[in-house]
Specification:
With 247 residues, the chain is α+β, with helices and mostly antiparallel strands. It contains 7 helices and 11 strands. The radius of gyration is 18 Å and the shape is globular.
């Protein structure tokens, strides 16, 4: 897997049509920072945050969605609270009156945001949990080809292989914005550790796979991440974001 070069973002960001920006976000913030961030959220986001049973999960949700607003506000030269979102029938959010496309994922102590212009994009991050029943979950959610590749790995590599597959499939589904109406078995991704991330096949349209770029994300130890974006020959930029530094 390639090592992504995470760097601090400049004060002013310009997003050209061939750019894809990926943001790694630290969610472990002080209670004072969380309170300040929460004030930038919409009423709907605040209500969703309040539904979490555990305070730590609530705070991570606030930090992730507050960071998303702050990051998108940088591109659009506006305050985070001024952003207005719509949601499609499958639950994927979008900005109103903007050609900025984005996606958010969070797990454990990190979130990822991917941003581009006028092209579908999806991102996924998962904290690697060794106690999961990987083979049973794979048999229910992966394609036959993916299950075969997973079970062909040495036992010590199957955990990483599983999360490679899971994040890549989730990123592609999120990019398409169709939720689980896009069947998990309708496309195949690569999963072998150390090998390139590839969208190997798409059904029923076999030409669809050639229109996409799929890549792993080097997030942090014990995390797996993936990005799916419509288009090829794109330029990727990797930004490190700690909202406590920018509020």
């Amino acid at each position: 897997m390639q090592k992504d070069n995470w760097t601090s973002p400049p004060d002013s960001l310009e997003l050209e049509s061939h750019y894809v920006d990926v943001w790694r976000i630290a969610l472990d913030l002080s209670s004072d920072s969380i309170k300040l961030i929460e004030s930038t959220l919409s009423a709907d986001e605040t209500q969703k945050a309040a539904r979490f049973h555990f305070p730590a999960d609530r705070d991570r949700f606030i930090a992730a969605h507050g960071s998303l607003r702050a990051i998108l506000g940088r591109y659009l030269r506006c305050k985070p609270v001024e952003l207005t979102f719509s949601v499609n029938s499958y639950g994927k959010p979008a900005l109103l009156n903007s050609n900025l496309e984005f996606n958010l994922s969070h797990s454990g102590d990190f979130a990822m945001v991917a941003v581009t212009l006028d092209r579908k994009i999806g991102v996924d991050i998962e904290r690697i949990r060794p106690d999961m029943e990987l083979e049973n979950i794979a048999s229910r959610n992966f394609s036959e080809i993916e299950v075969s590749e997973l079970m062909g790995l040495p036992p010590e590599q199957r955990g990483i292989g599983f999360f490679n597959c899971w994040t890549r499939k989730e990123a592609y589904i999120k990019a398409q914005g169709l939720g689980l109406s896009l069947p998990l078995e309708s496309f195949d991704v690569s999963l072998t550790p150390g090998q390139p991330a590839i969208l190997r096949a798409t059904r029923p349209d076999p030409q669809e796979s050639a229109r996409w770029t799929l890549r792993p994300l080097d997030v942090a130890p014990n995390y797996a991440g993936a990005l799916a974006v419509e288009g090829i020959d794109l330029d990727f930029r990797f930004w490190d974001w700690n909202l406590a530094v920018h509020i």
